[in-house]
Backbone:
């Protein structure tokens, strides 16, 4: 289940492009350039 904020509280998209076949929206996200996955543990999780 995902709770959404009312429309008046949501930030406006940074970029909107529409054509007859597609809609593109900017999706700002956090990007971790230094995350290192070291290997899988026996319990199925990964060492970071």
Residues:
């Amino acid at each position: 289940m995902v709770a959404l904020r009312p429309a008046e509280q949501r930030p406006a998209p940074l970029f909107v492009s529409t054509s007859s076949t597609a809609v593109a929206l900017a999706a700002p996200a956090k990007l971790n350039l230094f995350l290192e996955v070291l290997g899988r543990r026996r319990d199925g999780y990964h060492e970071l």
In short: The mean pLDDT is 77. The chain has no helices and four strands. The longest strand covers residues 16-18.
